[in-house]
Amino acid sequence: MILGIIGSGPVGLVTAAGFCALGHEVVCVENDPRRLEQLAGGKVPFYEPGLQELVAQGVGQGRLRFTGNLREAMQVATVVLICVGTPEGADGVADLSQMESAAAEIADELPGYRLLVEKSTVPIGTHRQIARIIRNRAGPDAEFDLACIPEFLREGNAVRDFFNPDRIIIGAAGARSQRLIDDLYGSFDCPKVWTDPGTAELIKYASNAFLALKISYANLLSDVSEATGANLGQLLEGVGSDSRIGRSFFNPGAGYGGSCLPKDMQAFYHLSTGAGVDAALLAEVQRINQRRPARIVAKARRRLDPMHGRPVTVWGLSFKPGTDDVRSAPSLEVVRLLLDAGARVTGHDPVAIASFQQTFGPHPNLRYCPDMYQAATGSQALLVITEWDDYRSANLTRLRAAMASPLIVDGRRIYDPQTMDALGFDYEALGLARRDENRRD
User: Fold this and answer.
1) Partner of 14 at 20 to 30 A CA spacing, among 8, 226, 332, 406?
2) Which of 79, 263, 68, 108 is nearest to 176 (CA)?
3) Tell me, what's the pLDDT at 436?
């Protein structure tokens, strides 16, 4: 099958390369000249494990090509997947301007019947809005079907998730579109949930909101454990071992971030309240998450008071391991709070330093170091914000020798407290209630 894919961001490019690997031919449309130039030169413009190799394979086999001209894709592709951004608008409502622009361009280039598929995360009812735009521009006799097959690709695991989905949500109506979708997704061995397009649109928001709820609930439990002296690890294991709950996404930390959960939670909240539904639960999930960076910094400030002029290291700038994405990353707020307190901050991340620099901007008391041990040298506190494997497997003896003061605030609970005590660290972690005699208050 020949596919057209509009947008070559994390969703579009992984989807394009994945379908190429399954034997399809893909024409990927990208209207950003700089990104198009990078892709044409064989370079993936963001970090995603395994994607560079998959793209090179598709291009090398002649199955994958990139263009800035939508007409090229519309002329040859029977199925066109829309993978454009739907960022958070100024009022928290999803910004659908890229979807609307794509719909208008599709209408102008529609050569005959095409199946159009929403892959982007959109509010319920968007498929009707897109269909209306196309019919208004192309005429009432325009031949197309519109389906919604939302993506569930996790950054850092997107390639693996494409080939091994938990399930595929298919919102489609009409026998013709269903036959095409069967052909396209027939090789995927997983449950397929068929529904109408509107329900499929809502499933994506509802799924992300529940994941955010689990994370925030785990963070609430970490606060309760600190206050009561409960063993948080055993608490999470005991609760998460219930098959109705599960351990996945049930871990406390610096908070969720990235391009999906924060904006989707906000959009789902506005969608719900706009429909007259009391969505106070969603608002509280967001509030819990927003408080996490301040709670981590407060642990450091209690031990380094005043913080003005003190060297502090931050390990982990991306919002999660396996990506260079810093959108809504907890590290942004952590670094800001540290700088506001007067600290001299050194940041490290295996792949996200450049992204963080571009997003955060310059500051006289902020620098970056490509070596994690050098970044910690002379530091009076180390804050772990992202749970990269590099940090999990760190040479802790070397780290202890490099630091001027052994304070570690573990925002992801990646170290064993007893091990850290034995090595002479002054160890703080979320959910850890400790009353050590040697603790410096």
Assistant:
1) 332
2) 79
3) 46
- Confidence band of 441 (pLDDT split at 50, 70, 90): very low
pLDDT of residue 434: 62
pLDDT of res. 439: 40
Pick from 257, 286, 315: which residue ends a domain? 286
Given a cut of 60, is residue 267 above it in pLDDT?
yes
Nearest to 48 by CA among 21, 16, 11: 11
Identify whether 39 is part of a domain: yes
Residue 214 lies in domain: 205-286
> Is pLDDT at 192 greater than 60 in this prediction?
yes
State the DSSP string of 373-427.
HHHHTT-SEEEE-S--HHHHT--HHHHHHH-SS-EEEETT--S-HHHHHHTT-EE
Instruction: Mark whether 369 is an active-site residue.
Output: no
Strands (E), 257-406: 311-315, 344-348, 366-368, 381-384
**Residue 437, in any domain of the structure:** no
Whole-angstrom distance, CA of residue 261 vs CA of residue 286: 10
In a domain, 434, yes or no: no
Specify the residue for token string 């999660």: 320
Which whole number is the average pLDDT over 99-127? Answer: 96
Both tokens of 146, joined, read 């519109």
Residue whose structure tokens are 């968007």: 126
Widest CA span in the chain: 79
Beta strands in 54-160 (DSSP E): 64-67, 79-82, 114-118, 144-148
Please state, in angstroms and rounded to a whole number, the distance separating the CA atoms of residues 56 and 363.
38
Among all chains, which residue has been given the structure tokens 């454009």? 84
| Alpha helices (H) in 22-76, listed in sequence order | 33-40, 51-60, 70-76
What's the token pair of residue 176?
A: 């013709």
